[in-house]
Each structure stands twice: as structure tokens, then as C-alpha cells.
Amino acid sequence: MPLPINAAASSTAAAISRRVLAATSISYTIVLLDASIVNVALEQIGRTLHSNVTGLQWVVNAYTLSFASLLLTGGTLGDRLGARNVYVAGLVLFALASALCGMAPDLATLTIARALQGMGSAMLVPCSLALINRAFPDSAQRASAVGVWMGCGGIAMASGPLVGGILIHWFGWRSIFTVNVPIALAGIWLTRSIGRNDDGVAARRHFDLAGQAAAIVALGTLIAVLIEGSRLGWRSTPIAMGMMICASAWVAFLSIEKRRAHPMLPLSFFRSPLFSASTAVSMASAFVFYGLLFTFSIAYQQQHGFSALETGLAFLPMTAMVAIGGLASHRIVERCGPRASMCAAFGLYAAGSLGMLAATPHAPYWIAIAPMLAIGLASGFVSPAATSPAMGTVEKQRGAVAAAVLNSARQTGAALGVAIFGGFIAAVKPFELAMQVALGSAAAVALAAALIWWIAASAFSVAGVRHKPTSSSQLQSAKRSEVR
């Protein structure tokens, strides 16, 4: 007996929604997988392509830098050209760039291909959320779908080092890039039935070309100075010129964004101390985690003599706790409050970093397990815990832009962590001393982030008391949003 028309339409819509979720989850998986998987391949890449630590920093940061600087523009492209169109274009670009990474004959080609991967990722992430938003109009279903989407990304980031170690052990370092190609093709195939016509609600958003150009120059020169400073000399002419260009670009960027009617980065968001603090702690968390991930990768493979597979297994306690921390974040915040739990998370970062000082090349591996558990738990907790309060400070219609700002902050923090910690390894000798400097710096940044969050959360609570709500509904809303 044929289904009624309404039932058949509902069944078709549900099938398309599931296909959208599967496609976007696949894309987010490879985006975050590539952010962590490359770390266990650094030793083999360096040996094959004859690269030093500076070159390896560029391999890691070319991806995160282009991802961070183009993320906001990727969302605008989706609004103007259609989320599905930009999403598919991003997947195609990511697949082609991954194939180029796998075939790269030299370090320069690999670095350029990594930057192209980052461009593809910057198109994928905001358009993935737009497609999910369209496919799941019901708020409860949409929240569940976003949870699945973020969960897949968290698992990918956590499993990256282990998956990379296994692939490298059996197929070599190039396989960690070429494996993306069939996955991206599967994502493209899954999008074939998604409608091409977007709602067009935000289609009138303008490109902030001047702001985008200034942001690319500002971030690019900042990372370049930090990576190349130890090699060329901090007083050398290229580094001095780079510093001047970087400072000028940042001033120009802020000036442009302040005057634009449709800025790429709405500076009005930062009038809220809580949004500013959320951005700062998101950046600090990525700075510490990815900086330490890069440093530990070099240490385990070059100092401890671990293979890529052994390095992936060594990272398993830390990366597993990233997934657990993300899943438990909401419950911990509900039980302990955002202020205390966030400060405790950064305390774990600091304790884990200082605890790793005992994990010398001659020490047994088990000494590093407890510190790595602490670092992984903190990393998994901070991202969702910082996002929710920040999103509560902006209007609903500007939520996508606010989310893009937070993601850009995380990617920028990751790039800075790799650049600065890699600079310690390149400039400070012996390696054990460089590790001590990096770990001490990570602990200091974590404690500073905890202080920033405590002050901002306290200020937000005081502001809530000063502006006491008059109605019962306002009172209930204030109680739910109050930062304890």
C-alpha cells in the first residue's frame, strides 16, 4: 500500500536530512583530522624532504594560517553563492590539495598544498553549519545534529595522531594526505541530492575585501616573523621589515573594521567582557594544546627515538581525554559553574605542562601519562565551555559570525603555538632546555587565561546584579545566564 503524500514527503525530507548530516560530518572529520594527523609525520617529512624545524613549522602552520584568515570570508561566500555550492567547491579544493600534498616533491610544494587545504577547510566549516541549519528546521533536531557534527570532529582530532601513526607505519607519510581524497569524494557524492537553492536571507552581505587582505597580511607576517626570527636573526633587516609590516597591517585591519558598515570582524562583539574573554581563552587553549602537540611530536621522534606508530600510541592518553573532556564539558559546567570549571581546566593545563618537565628522554614513558591526561582533558573541555557563554552575548541573527570569530581565534592560537614553541626548539640549545622553556611558557599562558576568565566572569556577574531584572521571566533568564 503506497504511503500518503505527506508521509512520503516527510520520509524523503528525513532521508535528505540524514544525508546532509553524513556529508557535513565527513567533511568536518577530515578538516580536524588534518589539524592533528600531520604532527606524527613531521620526522619522516623532514627526513624525506630534507627540512629542519623551521620548515616543519611551515608545513603545520600553512594549513592553520589559511584556515584562520579565510574562515569568515568562507561564510560570506556561502551566503552570497549558496552554501551547497561553496561546500562542494571546498571539498573539491580540499581533495585536490590533499592529492598535491601526497605527491609533493619538495617542501615548498607541500607548504603551498597545505595552504590550499586550509582554504578548502575555510569554505567547508561555515557552509556545513549552514546546510545543517537548513536541513534541520526543528531546534531540538538541529541541536542534536550539531552535536553529532561536533562529536565527529572531536573524535577525528583525538584519533589523528594514532590514525596517522598507523597509516605512516604501513604506507608512508604521504598516505596521511592521499587518504583524504576518497573521503572527500564520498562527501561530494552524498551532497548530490541537496537542493541548490539557498534561502538567500543573508545574500546581501558584502565582501570586506580590504579587511580580508589586511587580516591575511597581519596574520601571515606575524607567523612568518615568529618562525623565521630565530633563523634569520631578530635584528636582521627582513625580520625588522616584517615587524613593521605586521604592525601596520594590524592597525589598518582594526581601522577598516571599525569604519565598515559590514565588517568581516564586528568589533562590537568585544564590548562584552564575556565574549572577549571567551575569544581569549579559546585562543590560549589552542595555543597551548597545538604548541605542545608539535613539541611533543619532535621530542618523541627525535629525542626518544619513537616511530610514527609509537608516537601515535604515546599520544593516545592525551587525545582520548580530548574526546572525553568535550563530551563531559556541559555536565561539568552545569555542576560547577562556568567560572570555576574553566579556571580549573586551565589549572589542569598548567599542572600538566609542569608535570611534563619530568618526562626527560631518559625517563620511563609512564611518567608522562598523568600530565598528558590533564592536558587532554583541559583541551576537550575548554572549547565547548567557552563557546556557549560567548554565543549568549550576541543576537541570534549574528550567531554564525560570532561562531566564525571563535573558530578563527582557535586556529590563530594554534598557529601561534606552533610558531612560538617551534621557535624555542630552533633557538634554544640543548633540546631539553628548549622543552623546559616551552612547557614553562605553556603553564604561564594557561594561568594568565584562567585569570582573564575569572575577572571577566566576575564582571559579568556583577553587571547582572546591577541591572536587576524586573519581571519573573527576566529573572529566570538572568539566573540561567549568570556566570557563577
TrEMBL record:
GO cellular component terms, semicolon-separated: membrane
Entry protein name: MFS transporter, DHA2 family, methylenomycin A resistance protein
Keyword GTP-binding: no
The keyword Zinc belongs to this UniProt entry's keyword annotation: no
Alphabetized InterPro entries for the sequence: MFS, MFS_dom, MFS_trans_sf
Entry superkingdom: Bacteria
Keywords: Membrane, Transmembrane, Transmembrane helix, Transport
Compartment annotation: Membrane
PROSITE patterns tied to this protein: MFS (PS50850)
GO MF annotation terms: transmembrane transporter activity
Membrane association type: Multi-pass membrane protein
Record field: transmembrane: 56-74, 86-105, 111-132, 144-170, 176-195, 207-227, 239-256, 277-300, 306-328, 340-359, 365-387, 399-427, 433-456
Organism name: Paraburkholderia phenazinium
Gene3D superfamilies, A to Z: MFS general substrate transporter like domains, Multidrug resistance protein D
Pfam family for this entry, one: MFS_1
